[in-house]
Design brief:
Elements lengths: L1 H8 L13 E4 L9 E8 L9 E2 L2 E2 L5 E5 L6 E6 L3 E2 L2 E2 L2 E2 L4 E8 L13 H11 L3 H15 L5 E7 L4 E8 L7 E8 L4 E4 L16 E3 L5 H5 L12 H5 L4 H18 L8 H4 L10 E2 L7 H7 L30 E4 L2 E4 L9 E9 L5 H4 L1 E6 L8 E4 L24 H12 L3 H36 L1 H33 L8 E6 L2 E6 L17 H15 L7
């Protein structure tokens, strides 16, 4: 019990800013294999990446449990325990319910500092208590109604094997218990996204199959002076999270990037909205131009607006190696003007990320998979973690390391080690990362088909043994990736040491084709390549300091 309480209350200290996290949503008729999929990236400089695990259990419902705010650890108060809980691996449970979130903050006066239920505990309590997405919505909204809502504005992706909902919620301020909220079902043949800006505008008032909401979501906005029009024209986003420049250029642009790549409609029509030139918002959901695969979604979470007007790899800030990363704060002031760098989907400060894959045509034990990774998704690997697992890989476990303690046994720290070698020489080293990612992820995705056939057959005979093998398979997949990424770090530090690129050659043996560093005819290292800096970068240097650096005739 002590271990359970520690895991539940303290290990997920998610200190998220208003510009953190991205969630993509894909209906089952919009996916290539009939999967329901949602994504999440926990983006924060102060969060350690690990995979949380709470086994199913039975409890005395007369007992209570203490709530602590996930962002600060502050004690909030007690709530009543559930009599029985589901198995939970990260953000998915053994009934194929999966939940992600992004914080939009909203009106600061609406946070209730006396509430007991913060958004983090709401997610885990819903996963522990619900067997469907609709049940999860009811669990979450009932909890805030009974205990009060402590957090600021949140957008939740709530999915099961059949459907996906976006629910947006914000409190009512001190002295007003509960929250106002609205939940909209995403059509099965559509895709959607949210990224730290409220996205629900008008919503159907008489369609409970596809939209449910708190009874006072509109009347409370009128009471507070946020809205004066008719019920039909009410916009949750406009009332509770009014747009500003950052909401467009740091947040909504990430949604646009997803639509730009996959929407059936031409996404260029929404660029004026992103630039603040047209108040007409993007739709909450759109139909895709093609059915999306699991790999499509994995790669979308690595996006930096490449090839669009927002591409950060093409300006002087990208440096000679066309880096999409900006390590300074997003916003800055210079000569009395305010500026902001691009904020893409993939970012260096990610603690962990996932694609939740739920499938109604498979048993729950194998239908729900959390494709999980730590640190920056762009320079990491997705591994399959099933919702029925009875243990999690050592490299992902709580306590393997922390933000102040490097560990060679920690996935989070190994990924940080590799990523921080890539960042300074981005376009030189990234191809090696992509090759290794492709090899591992294609293997895991290919293996998934055959392994799940084996597991499905065994489930009919011996469920306990099947779950044991599923757990072992997931742990083995994570270890395969972990060993590969340790080797990747060792390979990169040799190949790219001191600004050069060591020469390589291929060779074959009984295990296949491999690469190795070339040796000279005297058996020493072949002299390395010393690549030139990017020409555009050199032009910037010459523009700034060319007269000083230019070779000139010397006096004799």
């Amino acid at each position: 019990m002590k271990r359970f309480l520690f895991l539940f209350f303290f290990v997920f200290s998610v200190i998220l800013s208003s510009l953190a996290c991205t969630s993509l949503l894909i209906g089952k008729k919009a996916s290539a294999d009939g999967s329901v999929m949602i994504t999440y990236s926990a983006d924060s400089y102060a969060v350690y990446g690990e995979l949380y695990f709470n086994p199913a259990g039975k409890f005395d419902p007369k007992t209570t449990m203490e709530m602590h705010d996930w962002e600060t650890g502050r004690y909030l108060g007690p709530i009543q325990k559930a009599a029985q809980t589901n198995n939970m691996v990260g953000y998915i449970n053994d009934h194929q319910v999966c939940i992600g979130e992004t914080t939009f903050g909203g009106r600061p006066e609406l946070q209730d500092t006396t509430g007991i239920m913060d958004y983090g505990n709401m997610i885990f309590l819903a996963l522990q208590r619900a067997k469907t997405a609709r049940e999860a919505i009811k669990v979450m909204t009932d909890l805030v109604e009974e205990y009060g809502y402590y957090s600021s504005g949140e957008s939740f992706s709530i999915a099961d094997k059949n459907e996906i909902w976006i629910m947006e919620m914000i409190g009512k301020g001190v002295g007003r218990k509960g929250a106002v909220w609205v939940a909209v079902r995403i059509p099965d043949d559509c895709i959607a996204a949210h990224a730290n800006q409220s996205r629900i505008h008008q919503f159907p008032l008489n369609d409970p199959e596809n939209c449910i909401y708190s009874k006072d979501v509109i009347s409370f906005a009128r009471e507070m002076g946020y809205y004066e029009g008719s019920d039909q024209q009410f916009s949750f986003a406009n009332a509770y999270n009014p747009l500003d420049w950052g909401g467009l250029r740091f947040c909504e642009v990430r949604v646009w990037s997803f639509y730009n790549k996959y929407a059936a409609d031409d996404a260029s029509q929404w660029i004026p909205y992103i630039l603040g030139e047209d108040p007409t918002p993007m739709p909450l959901y759109v139909k895709p131009k093609e059915k999306l695969s699991l790999k499509n979604i994995m790669d979308m979470m690595r996006d930096h607006y490449e090839g669009t007007p927002f591409d950060p790899t093409q300006d002087v800030g990208a440096g000679p190696y066309h880096s999409p990363y900006r390590f300074n704060p997003l916003s800055f002031q210079l000569d009395g003007k305010k500026y902001g760098f691009e904020r893409p989907i993939s970012t260096q400060q990610t603690a962990f990320f996932f694609v939740g894959q739920m499938r109604d045509y498979l048993p729950d034990e194998i239908g729900g998979v959390l494709w999980f990774g730590t640190d920056d998704a762009n320079i990491s690997v997705y591994t399959p973690m099933y919702g029925c697992m009875t243990d999690v890989p050592d490299c992902y476990k709580v306590g393997t390391g922390d933000m102040n303690s490097f560990s060679w046994n920690s996935s989070f720290w190994i990924n940080n080690w590799v990523a921080n070698m890539v960042y300074p020489r981005y376009n030189q080293i990234l191809p090696d990362i992509r090759e290794a990612q492709k090899e591992l992820e294609e293997k895991f995705i290919t293996d998934q088909v055959e392994k799940e056939k084996e597991f499905a057959a065994l489930l009919k005979i011996n469920r306990e043994e099947a779950i044991k093998q599923i757990t072992q398979y997931s742990i083995g997949a994570a270890q395969t990736y972990f060993d590969k990424w340790k080797n990747m770090g060792e390979y990169i530090i040799v190949k790219y040491s001191d600004g050069v690129i060591m020469k390589e050659e291929t060779y074959q043996d009984e295990q296949g084709t491999h690469k190795r560093f070339k040796k000279s005819k005297y058996n020493g290292p072949e002299y390395p390549n010393r690549p030139l800096l990017d020409e555009n970068f050199l032009r910037q240097i010459v523009k700034e300091k060319g007269d000083w650096l230019e070779e000139k005739e010397i006096k004799k």
